[in-house]
Design brief:
Strand content: 15-25%
Largest sheet: 3 strands, antiparallel
Strand order of the largest sheet: 3-4-5
Oligomer: single chain
Order of helices and strands: HEEHEEEHHHEEHHH
CATH topology of the largest domain: Enolase-like, domain 1
Number of domains: 2
Bound molecules: zinc ion
Mean pLDDT: 85
Distance between the termini: 42 Å
CATH architecture of the largest domain: 2-Layer Sandwich
CATH superfamily of the largest domain: DNA repair protein Rad52/59/22
Length: 225
């Protein structure tokens, strides 16, 4: 395999709009496993493998541990996953199956993560987690999703996030989404506003410097477009 670097680069590419899925319990977002599998298939021309290297099922202690290995050409990467059985697997053997599925899925995602797959798509949702780190700022730069030709649509210099304003329904820019994160005690998952629509009493809570920086950045963007 002489195009390994190219394959790795295409694994990291942005997914199409709408790929990031909200959890049913509203606790965060994820990208479905099928999406990752499809990307691996396309990027490698089906030349990849997934192997369960280790599966440790403990009925007495009610846990399952899995190690999954992904191989692309001669290179492999491992991921691990653990799941707990809530109930008595001796009385209800189905619990074991569910726990194995969960642990293996988690291990797969863990391995996927080492290729930075989906990072660009998840970054706008993970600003407080890891994506707000300046070393990862490049992930937030806008770019076309994989498979979309450059020039097909005008490139936006102020990258747009997947979050919609509650009032005007417009998509927030990444900068607006970041700004919301700077309002103390604001739950960004439920209180989503574009800059114009942030209620005045909330806007007042923004540190002055943060507000000035935002407005300056926005004015510069306007001038350059
Ligand atoms: Zn709005």
């Amino acid at each position: 395999m002489d195009n390994y670097q190219e394959i790795i680069a295409s694994l990291k590419q942005r997914f199409p709009e709408g790929t990031v899925t909200h959890r049913k319990d509203k606790k965060g977002v994820y990208i479905p496993n099928q999406v990752y599998t499809d990307r691996l298939e396309t990027a490698t021309g089906s030349e990849w493998d997934k192997e369960i290297k280790e599966l440790d099922i403990s009925v007495p202690h009610r846990y399952v541990k899995a190690i999954v290995q992904i191989r692309i050409g001669p290179y492999t990467r491992d991921g691990y996953g653990v799941s707990i059985m809530n109930g008595d697997p001796a009385a209800e053997p189905k619990l074991i199956r569910t726990a194995v599925d969960q642990a293996v899925n988690e291990a797969f995602i863990d391995a996927i993560d080492t290729y930075e797959m989906g990072w660009k798509d998840l970054a706008p949702y993970k600003l407080e987690d890891w994506a707000g780190n300046p070393a990862l700022a490049h992930l937030l730069q806008s770019g076309p999703p994989a498979g979309v030709e450059v020039g097909a649509a005008p490139m936006q210099s102020f990258a747009v996030s997947n979050h919609k304003c509650l009032k005007c329904k417009a998509n927030l820019t990444i900068a607006e989404w970041e700004l919301l994160g700077r309002i103390p005690n604001l739950n960004r998952e439920s209180m989503v506003y574009c800059f114009e629509d942030i209620p005045a009493h909330l806007k007042r809570k923004l540190p002055e410097q943060v507000l000035t920086d935002f407005e300056e950045k926005r004015n510069n963007e306007r001038r350059s477009t």
